[in-house]
């Protein structure tokens, strides 16, 4: 009986010792000789690994772990977006607006026709002129560059006419105000020779202010001295097509072209009517080409007749030899 009690006590002792030494179900676990780790390491489960915080945000020790992780996420996201993920695009350069080209002036408007008269003694009209005219002046400016200036003759409502009714010479002077309130003028001289008269010469006087950058301060005078348009006394001269006359000046490198259209004039009149006399139209003027063409045709005709005569004579001589 005592032996069984002792044996039971020994078994209990063995069981308690085996639990302490790590013997479970016949398996012996070697224990290190140094004392075991604290209980919190045995009872606390391994924490769930969390993503390492970015190196850009310093760790916070005073706040809980969850709070620190949330703050790190919210603060590092904008930095990543700005520097790496979405860089700020460089603004494209603003295109330079193309300047609007200055419109170049078109051709000068065609001049309007006007009618001017010169009255003599006893209220008779000695000169009547109807025309539309322009002056195209070519000159050198102060920088020695060639310039062209177009000056239009105003009609009779914006100009006035004066003149002289002589027995052998007559003229009409058409004057108008220039842009600088100075007078420009155009003078037509007529000469009478027996039963005909003609436009003897044309004279234009232009103020220097009407010519941009003109290098002289004196009035520019341009003249055409060639007799033009002979016509019988008591008749008028008419030419509706445009005609150009060249005017010269004593100023070097300065000329002008006087272009006139719808022209009709009559000088040496002796009545007080306002109607032109019988018109001699320029369309019926004989050109230089016509006499040249007529002369060539006559020469060709003479040659043809001469050749025909020689051929006929040779044939007649050949027949005479055959008859003998």
TrEMBL record:
<feature type="transmembrane region" description="Helical">
    <location>
        <begin position="289"/>
        <end position="311"/>
    </location>
</feature>
<feature type="region of interest" description="Disordered">
    <location>
        <begin position="28"/>
        <end position="115"/>
    </location>
</feature>
<dbReference type="GO" id="GO:0005886">
    <property type="term" value="C:plasma membrane"/>
</dbReference>
<protein>
    <recommendedName>
        <fullName>Lysosome-associated membrane glycoprotein 5</fullName>
    </recommendedName>
</protein>
<keyword id="KW-1133">Transmembrane helix</keyword>
<feature type="compositionally biased region" description="Low complexity">
    <location>
        <begin position="58"/>
        <end position="87"/>
    </location>
</feature>
<keyword id="KW-0812">Transmembrane</keyword>
<dbReference type="InterPro" id="IPR048528">
    <property type="entry name" value="Lamp2-like_luminal"/>
</dbReference>
<keyword id="KW-0472">Membrane</keyword>
<feature type="domain" description="Lysosome-associated membrane glycoprotein 2-like transmembrane">
    <location>
        <begin position="290"/>
        <end position="321"/>
    </location>
</feature>
<comment type="function">
    <text>Plays a role in short-term synaptic plasticity in a subset of GABAergic neurons in the brain.</text>
</comment>
<dbReference type="InterPro" id="IPR002000">
    <property type="entry name" value="Lysosome-assoc_membr_glycop"/>
</dbReference>
<keyword id="KW-0325">Glycoprotein</keyword>
<dbReference type="Pfam" id="PF21222">
    <property type="entry name" value="Lamp2_2nd"/>
</dbReference>
<keyword id="KW-0770">Synapse</keyword>
<keyword id="KW-0732">Signal</keyword>
<feature type="signal peptide">
    <location>
        <begin position="1"/>
        <end position="26"/>
    </location>
</feature>
<dbReference type="GO" id="GO:0072594">
    <property type="term" value="P:establishment of protein localization to organelle"/>
</dbReference>
<dbReference type="GO" id="GO:0005765">
    <property type="term" value="C:lysosomal membrane"/>
</dbReference>
<feature type="compositionally biased region" description="Pro residues">
    <location>
        <begin position="46"/>
        <end position="57"/>
    </location>
</feature>
<dbReference type="Pfam" id="PF01299">
    <property type="entry name" value="Lamp2-like_luminal"/>
</dbReference>
<dbReference type="GO" id="GO:0031902">
    <property type="term" value="C:late endosome membrane"/>
</dbReference>
<feature type="compositionally biased region" description="Pro residues">
    <location>
        <begin position="88"/>
        <end position="110"/>
    </location>
</feature>
<feature type="compositionally biased region" description="Basic and acidic residues">
    <location>
        <begin position="28"/>
        <end position="42"/>
    </location>
</feature>
<comment type="similarity">
    <text>Belongs to the LAMP family.</text>
</comment>
<keyword id="KW-0968">Cytoplasmic vesicle</keyword>
<keyword id="KW-0966">Cell projection</keyword>
<keyword id="KW-0967">Endosome</keyword>
<dbReference type="InterPro" id="IPR048524">
    <property type="entry name" value="Lamp2-like_TM"/>
</dbReference>
<feature type="domain" description="Lysosome-associated membrane glycoprotein 2-like luminal">
    <location>
        <begin position="111"/>
        <end position="269"/>
    </location>
</feature>
């Amino acid at each position: 009986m005592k032996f069984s009690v002792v044996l039971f006590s020994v078994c209990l002792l063995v069981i308690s010792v085996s639990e302490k030494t790590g013997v479970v179900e016949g398996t012996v676990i070697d224990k290190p000789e140094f004392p075991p780790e604290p209980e919190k390491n045995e009872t606390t489960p391994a924490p769930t690994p969390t993503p390492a915080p970015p190196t850009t945000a310093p760790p916070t020790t005073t706040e809980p772990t969850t709070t620190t992780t949330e703050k790190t996420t919210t603060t590092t996201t904008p930095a990543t977006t700005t520097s790496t993920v979405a860089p700020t695009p460089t603004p494209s350069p603003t295109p330079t607006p193309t300047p609007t080209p200055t419109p170049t002036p078109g051709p000068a408007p065609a001049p309007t026709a006007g009618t001017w008269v010169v009255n003599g003694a006893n209220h008779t009209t000695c000169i009547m002129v109807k025309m539309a005219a322009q002056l195209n002046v070519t000159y050198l400016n102060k920088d020695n560059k060639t310039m062209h200036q177009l000056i239009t003759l105003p009609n009779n409502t914006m100009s006035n006419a004066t003149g002289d009714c002589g027995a052998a010479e007559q003229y009409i002077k058409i004057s108008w105000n220039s842009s600088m309130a100075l007078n420009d003028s155009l003078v037509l001289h007529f000469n009478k020779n027996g039963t005909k008269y003609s436009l003897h010469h044309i004279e234009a006087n232009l103020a220097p202010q009407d010519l941009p950058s003109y290098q002289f301060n004196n009035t520019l005078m341009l003249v055409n001295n060639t007799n033009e348009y002979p016509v019988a006394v008591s008749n008028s001269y008419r030419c509706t097509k445009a005609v150009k006359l060249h005017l010269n000046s004593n100023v070097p490198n300065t000329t002008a072209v006087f272009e006139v259209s719808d022209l009709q004039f009559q000088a040496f009149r002796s009545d007080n009517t306002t109607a032109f006399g019988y018109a001699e139209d320029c369309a019926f003027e004989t050109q230089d080409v016509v006499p040249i063409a007529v002369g060539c045709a006559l020469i060709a005709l003479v040659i043809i007749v001469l050749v025909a005569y020689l051929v006929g004579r040779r044939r007649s001589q050949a027949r005479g030899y055959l008859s003998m």
